Amino acid sequence: MILRTLADLRAQVAAWKRAGESVGVVPTMGALHQGHLSLVSAAKQACDRVIVTIFVNPRQFNSPEDLANYPRTEIEDARKLAPLAVDVVYVPDGAQMYPEGFATTVSVGGLTDVLCGANRPGHFDGVATVVTKLFTQTQADRAYFGEKDYQQVQVVTRLARDLDLPIAVVACPTIREEDGLAMSSRNLLLSDRARVYAPELHRAMKELAQGLIAGKDPTLLHMQAKARLDRAGFTKVEYLDLRACDDLSLLETPDRPARLLAAAWLAGVRLIDNIAVG
Ligand code: AMP
Asked: Whole-model pTM?
């Protein structure tokens, strides 16, 4: 069932809660792919009722062109969700989420100073604000997010804890294409030629991670990875960082649980990825 208003959503959730049913939510911006669907499957396994939200959140885009170009495929999305028997697809419009006079921002400190936070000013404020609203609107017991957006999972976990929101944030593994490219709605924006070279990001990261684990020189490994990306046609590497899993502090070597995270531009499309190291 597709619901478009908060009033309808609230009535449905209230009925479930009266019946003692647990509720899971999967927040998305649509243009659904197997990565999103894996979150839905995880939610279905653990929750009596599952809500998928589809909202292209203007507040988390830091460029008007990016917002305008973001793929919107609502009919196709509904077709993909049908076999999964989701209970509600919640598709609010902008006025529903941000009515006239809306003036509140949720901002998570520290974690958002680096990586995507440093490169996309305001992005995580937009994410934190919309996610807080979706959590309170859906009254969900569990929320499902992808590790593909690793920093986002950290930010959302932090905000739920800091604001005492009664919701468990569940992180699910990144789903990849056969050639290793992390699935992303933005992959639809890649030209055929760029799509051929896009998996080089994941390959360069794997090579770098393996080198770090083997104790090779981090500076040399970073240079090699950047040269590989350069050869593949990536025009800008925003970051290619080894960071601590818990607080995202920068590391030179994986001497504690670590993650390699990258953002890079290929033919006008910004791709991000991350992998565990060790
Ligand atoms: P988005 O529609 O891009 O905002 O993503 C909605 C949710 O799906 C977020 O929690 C993402 O981290 C997650 N997601 C996106 N791509 C993938 C993927 N390849 N594997 C797993 N989860 C993903």
From this structure: 0.97
pLDDT of residue 261 exceeding 90, the answer is yes
The finding on whether 36 has its CB within 6 A of some atom of ligand 1 is yes
Residue 131 Cα, ligand 1 centroid: separation in angstroms? Answer: 14
Rounded to whole angstroms, the Cα distance separating 230 from 47 reads 45
Query: Is the shortest distance between the CB of 137 and ligand 1 below 6 Å?
Result: no
Nearest CA owner, ligand 1 atom 22: 146
- SS percent in the chain: helix, strand, coil, step 5: 45, 20, 30
Q: What is the set of domains in the chain, with CATH numbers?
A: 2-172 (3.40.50.620), 185-277 (3.30.1300.10)
Quote the tokens at residue 172.
């699910």
Please indicate whether residue 275, judged by its CB atom, sits closer than 6 Å to ligand 1: no
Tally the C-alpha atoms within 13 A of residue 254's C-alpha that lie toward its C-beta: 21
Phi–psi pair at 114, nearest 5 degrees: -120, 175
Q: Which of 36, 123, 202, 222 is catalytic?
A: 36
Report how far ligand 1's centroid is from the alpha carbon of 216 (Å).
32
Characterize the bridge pairing of strands 269-277 and 258-266. Answer: antiparallel
Residue 131 near residue 149 (C-beta atoms within 8 A): no
pLDDT higher than 90, residue 32: yes
